[in-house]
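Researcher: Going back to the complex we discussed earlier. I've cleaned up the inputs and rechecked each line, so this should be the final set. Can you rerun the prediction on the complete assembly and write out the structure?
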Amino acid sequence: MTAVGWTGQPVRRVEDAELLTGAGRYLDDIRLPGMLHLAVVRSPVAHALLGGIDTAAAAASPGVRLVLTGADVAGLSRLPVASDSGAQVFGPAVPILASERVRFAGEPVAVVVAESRAAAVDAAELVDVEYQELPAVTDPAAALAGQVVLHGDATDNVMFRWHQASGDVDAAFASAAAIVRADLELPRLAAAPLEPRGCLAAYDAAGDYLTVHASAQDPHRPRRQLAAVFGRTPESIRVIVPNVGGSFGSKSMLAPEAFATVLAALRLGRPVKWVETRSENFLAAYQGRGLRADCELAVAADGRFLALCARLTSDVGAYLYPVSPVPAVHAGTLATGCYDIPAASVEVTGVATNKVPTGPYRGAGRPEGAFIAERLADLTAAELGLDRAEIRRRNLIGPDAMPYRTAVGTTIDSGDFPRLLDRALELLDYDAALAEQRQARDRGEIYGVGMSVFLEPGGMGLWESAAVSVRPGGQVVAAVGSTAHGQGHQTAFAQLLADELGVPPAAIEIRAGDTATVPVGLGTFGSRSAITGGSALILAARELKATAIKLASERSGVPPAELAWRQGKIHGAGPPIDPPELSVTAGELSASAVFRLEQPVYSSGAYAAIVSIDASTGVLRVDRLVAAHDAGKVLNPLIAEGQVTGGTLQGFGEAVSEQVSYDADGQLLTGSFLSYGILSATEAPVLQSEFVEVPSPLNPLGVRGVGETGATGVPAVIASAVTDALSPLGVRHLDPPYTPEVLHAAVAVT
Amino acid sequence: MIPAEFGYRRAASVAEAIGMLTQDEDARLLAGGHSLIPLMKLRLAVPSLLVDIGKVAELRYVSEGPGYLAIGALTRHHTLATNPLVREQAGLLAAVATEIGDPQVRHRGTIGGSLAHGDPASDLPAALLALDASYLVSSPAGNRVISAGVFHLGFLQTALQHGEVITEIRVPSGTGSYGFRKFRARSMDWAMAGVAAARTPSGIRVALVNMGAVPLRAAAVEAALSAGRPAAEAAALAAVDTAPPADTSASAGFRRHLARVLTGQALADVDAAAPGRAGSVE
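Model: Rerun complete. Updated structure for the full complex:
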C-alpha cells in the first residue's frame, strides 16, 4: 500500500454529474436500427381459466409484426426454481406467458410486437381473451386452509418449506419463568424503482448471437437465466446492463416479459424492446415482505432468553421466482436477532395466493428478522417490567463470544452489539429522553422512546471475480462482476485501486455490466459488492503487481525482493518500468482474481428514536433518530452515509406508510403513487448516524455491508418507539404501517 | 401510459375554442393538462380532439370587477399564490394555491381547469364555494354565470354543457378573515380531508374538501355559528350530511373525524384574525 490514502476519504461520486444532467444512458435511451416495441396483454382478473385467445384483430392492426401467447412459449424451459436458500421447494416457477389459467391480476397472457410502442399498445387492446373466473384467495391463512387451490393437487397451497432447530426447545419452554408471545405481520411492499423494468433483445442469426440489454442488477445472473430458458450456451449470449434507475432487489431476476421479448427477437430477427409502465410495475413486478410471524419466546426470571419458537408464513403469491424463498428463509435465520438464545425452532412456510409473486426487496429478510427479534425483546421487557435497554444488554451476544453460531444455524463472524446499543443510546441521551418522556406524559402528550439492534449479513453468493489491466501511461482498467445500479462503484472501487496501485483515481476506469467485457461474475445484491467485488479487485491488483515484478525480475535479473511497485511503476531495476512494457500481449498487462468467502460477513447496528403522536390526528412525528453502524472499514463515508440515508427513508416508509393492498377478489388497490405510500424527501426523518469501524476478519479490506442497514434497523426502532408511546394506553403491539388512521384508532379506543 | 389516438388543435381565442368544441362531441378542452392528460394516459379519458387553450392570453388575468375580484380561467395556481390582488382580496385562494401539489403542478395547473375537472378532492373548488364565488361561462349561446353552489353536480361532473368554457372566476368583495386546513399523509398528496372557512358579508361560510362526491358546504356548522354557538361546538357538526370516500389512504370514518378536527382549526384561524384581514394559514 502507498501512503496516498484515497480509501476512507469522502470522495464525491464521479457518477453523479452524468446522471444528474440527463447524460446517463438508461435502457429506454437505447435505440437500435429496425427496433420493434413490445406491449403486454395482462389478466384483468386474479384467478381464471383461460378460454380462447383471439389474436386476429391485434395481428391485423397497423404495424403489428408478431403476437405471442402461452402456446408459443410451451417449448421453452421454465425458470429454474431450485433455490440455494436451503428451502424445500414445491411451487412452480413463474411462467413466461400464462397457459390454461391465470393466477394473479396483471399476469402476462400475450404480447404484441409492433413498429412503434403506440401501435403495440393499441393492438394489445384488441387481443380478445376469454376468462372463466374462479374464486381468488388473497389471505395466506385462507390459502393454507385450501379454500382455493392454485396449483394441481397441492391443496394446502404450500410452495416451499424450511425448518431449522437446535437445542432443547421443549425443555426451555417447560422451565421458562415466562413465555412471551407475538403475532406479527409485515405487509407486502413495492420496491418502486424510479426506472421500471425493461429489456431490449437483438439476435444476430448469422453468428447465432443474442444480445440483451436489460435493466437489471448485474449481467451475469440474467445471462444464466436466458441460457437455461432458451437452451443456449452462455457464450452465445451477451447481456449488457446500462445505467439503472434503482432496483432494491426487484431486478435480481429477469421479468417473464423479458423472456417473451427475447423470444420475439429470436423469431423476428429484429431488435425488440420492452419497457413497462409505472402501472405495470405496480401490478406485475415482484414485491417484497409479506410475512407473518407467530412467535413464542421462553424467558427466565432474570430476563434471559431461553428458546425461540417461531412459525413464519410467507405470502409468496401465485408463482415462484428463483429468489422468492430467499427473504422468508433469511428472516428465519435472523429471527434470533443479535441475541444469545440457546435453543430455537423456526419454521418457514411459503404459501400461494392469487397475487403477484414476492422476492427480495431492500433487506430481503433482514428487516423481518430484526422486527421479530426486536419486538420480542420489547415485549419481554414489558412482561417482566424491565427497562428495554437492560433486557437487551442481558441477552446480546458479547464480542468475546464471536464467532457465534446461532440456534438457527447461522454463524455471526464478529461484531460488538452491546457497544453499538450503548453508542446509539448515548447519541440519543437515553436517560434524558426517559426523563423528558415522564414530563411529556404528565402534560398529556403521547411520547415514545424506541431502540433496535440488528444484523445485516452481506456477501451472499460468497464469491466474485475481477480483472485489472494497466496500460501505457498508467491508465488502469478494472472489470468486476459486481455491477453498480446506484451504489457508486465507479467512485469507491477506484479509491481502493488507487491506493493499491499508487495511481490517482482519475486514471482508473471501472468496467461492469457487460458480459462481453467483464469476467464471469455473480452480481450486486444483499450488501455484497464491497465485500466480494472490492476484495476481488484488490486480489486482482495484487496479482497484477506480483506478475509485473516477476516479469521485471526476469528481464532485469534483479531479484524480486529488490523490486517494488510504486506509483504504478516498477522501481529498483534502473529507470522505472511501465508495467505494460513487460507484457508479451502488446499494450497492457493484466491479472484477474476470484475472491471467495467462507461465510457471510455480518454488519450490525443499533438505532434509537424519540417519537410523538398527535392525539387528535394520529400523526407521528419523529423527534430524534440516531444510529450507530458497524459496517467495518468504510471505503467512502459519503457513499456509506448515502446508503444509510436511502435505506432509512425506505425503512421509514415501511414503518409509517407503505403497504401493498388488494381487495378480496385479488384486485390491486395500490396501483399508483397516489395510493401507494412511498415517501419523498419532505417526509424524511432527520437521521444522526455514525460508523463504528470494526474491521471484518473475513476479507482483505475489512469491510462489511452497508446497503441495507437503514431498511433493516428503522422499521424495528419505529415500532419500538410507537408501541412505547402507546403503552400507557394499553397497547402491547401494533403492526406497521403506522398511518395516522391506525395511530388515531389506537389512541381513540382507550 | 400511451393515450389512445386523438386530434389536437390550438385555439387562439375563446371564440375559436368554442367553435372547435362544438364541431366535435367528444372534444375536450385542454388547459394546464394536469388532470386530463393523466386520465388520457391511463385511457380512462379517450377524447377524439383536444382543444388547447393554453395560449389564449385573454383568459390569463386578475382584475377588480364591480363588487368582485375577477380571475381569468387560465390563471395558474402559482399566480393565485403570489398575485398581490388575490392575496389582498381573496387571501383564502392564495393560501390554498400555495399548498397545491408541488411547484411544477402550481406552475401548470389552472383555476378553470381545476373547476372544470370537478374532482371533490381538489382544494380550489371548496375554497371558491366558501368564498361564494361564481363562474362566468361562455358558449355559442352567449354568456351565463353559474354560482359555485350549483356548479358541481357529481364526481367529475359539473354544470358545464358541451361547448361551454369557463372564462372567469368571480370572488365577491368583502370577505374577511379565513382559515384553510387540509390533512395529508405526504406533502404532495391530495387532501385526505380539507376545510376552507371564510368570514363573508353573509356570515361565516365553511366548505369541505373530499368529503363527498362534490365540494360540500358544512351547512350544519354554518347554521350553528350563525345561531351563536361556539366554534368548537359548531366544528363537531362538520361531518353532518357528508359522504366521504373510503380508500386505501383513509376510511370514511377517519375522514369524518378529520373534518371535525380541521374545521375546529380553520374556525380558530378565522376567529384569530382581525376582521377584514387575512387569517393565518400554516
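Model: Worth noting: Chain B touches chain A at residues 1-2, 4-5, 42-43, 183, 185-190, 192, 247-251, 254, 257-258, 261 (CB under 8 Å).
Researcher: Good, that matches what I expected from the previous run.
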